[in-house]
Write a structure and sequence with these properties.
Elements lengths: L2 H6 L12 H21 L2 H23 L30 H37 L1 H16 L2 H12 L4 H8 L4 H15 L3 H8 L4 H37 L10 H12 L8 H29 L1 H15 L1
Length: 323
């Protein structure tokens, strides 16, 4: 092929503008990190959600590193602010409840990460692949999804938890969300059916681009707002399901987390019936509601980051404000 032929090919045209390596990394950093962060932080919902997530991550990492686990040396059932050495009070065994909440946070975060990532990863892979390929592959994958959807989720989780008694937080998160990916996979497959007919997808397929590349670079980015919302919902589902199962004593209470604290408050001190020990039950509930609400706000604000139209509009607004 002659030089003139290469120049005439639109896919091999070389840009006349050259940028240095430093400028390239700066552009990548601004596009992928700083711009989404600016959009999130300029939305009150995003600011609250992002701050909440960062706060709990710091509590679960730095907080655990800076403090010792509760040692049961405090008074019995001290109320919050009754003794400033134990600002959130103590439980029936003399444990500092603030230290208990701090040292229960890493278990909760790992459990949320395990369940949410497993749920979204499996659903995205199955749903997008089935929707894009169609035909026999689509039928088989959707038949598997329908079979899993037909299985009652809660009894299945209870049976697995009783038989295997998982204690690793990452595994507990996966067990709790084990059958949930099927419904999301079906919903994602429906979204892919409408996207795969777009002209740029047809062009990519005609050019012989591999399926995994088309899915990764063309289809999944278009589904990111939907995936992000479902990631947040999956994380909230892990929180509520785990706390409920620990509170009912179905999962092993040998670990330290917010659900176990609520279980002990009810079984050891009857916190549902007396105000003397109610703070032992209420404090973990506040953490559950706070983190769940933060995730909802973060998910709603993240729509501006992943939705191309909203992102372009809000990016322009942020840039204008910066000037």
């Amino acid at each position: 092929m002659s030089h003139s032929d290469e120049r005439s090919n639109p896919f091999e045209t070389v840009s006349d503008v050259e940028i240095s390596r430093k400028e390239y990394y700066r552009t990548v950093l601004d596009t992928n990190v700083l711009a989404p962060l600016r959009i999130l932080l300029n939305d009150p919902r995003g600011l609250f959600g992002f701050s909440t997530i960062v706060f709990f991550i710091l509590v679960g990492t730095v907080g655990v590193w800076l403090t010792n686990p509760p040692d049961g040396t405090g008074g019995v059932l001290l109320s919050p602010f009754q003794n400033m050495e134990y600002p959130l009070g103590t439980d029936r065994y003399g444990n500092d409840l603030m230290l208990g909440l701090i040292h229960a946070t890493p278990f909760m975060l790992l459990m949320i990460a395990g369940g949410a990532l497993y749920n979204i990863s499996v659903a995205t892979i199955v749903g997008t692949f089935a929707g894009y390929k169609g035909g026999r592959i689509d039928e088989i994958l959707m038949m598997i999804c329908d079979a899993i959807i037909a299985v009652p989720g809660l009894p299945l989780v209870i049976v697995i938890a009783v038989i295997f008694e998982p204690t690793n937080p990452f595994v507990v998160g996966i067990v709790i969300t084990l059958p949930r990916w099927a419904g999301l996979a079906r919903a994602l497959r429906s979204e892919v059916l409408s996207v795969r007919q777009e002209s740029y997808i047809e062009a990519s397929r005609t050019m012989g681009i591999p399926t995994r590349t088309i899915l990764r670079h063309e289809i999944v980015p278009n589904l990111m707002p939907y995936i992000m919302i479902n990631l947040v919902n999956a994380a909230r589902g892990v929180i509520f399901a785990s706390v409920g199962l620990y509170f009912l004593g179905i999962l092993s209470v040998s670990t330290q987390n917010w659900g176990v604290m609520m279980n002990l408050a009810y079984t050891a001190a009857g916190s549902l019936y007396t105000w003397q020990s109610a703070h032992w039950l209420i404090l973990p509930m506040i953490c559950v509601v706070w983190l769940s609400f933060g995730l909802i706000m973060f998910g709603q604000a993240a729509d501006k980051v992943f939705n191309p139209r909203l992102r372009a509009r809000h990016a322009e607004t942020v840039d204008e404000e910066a000037r």
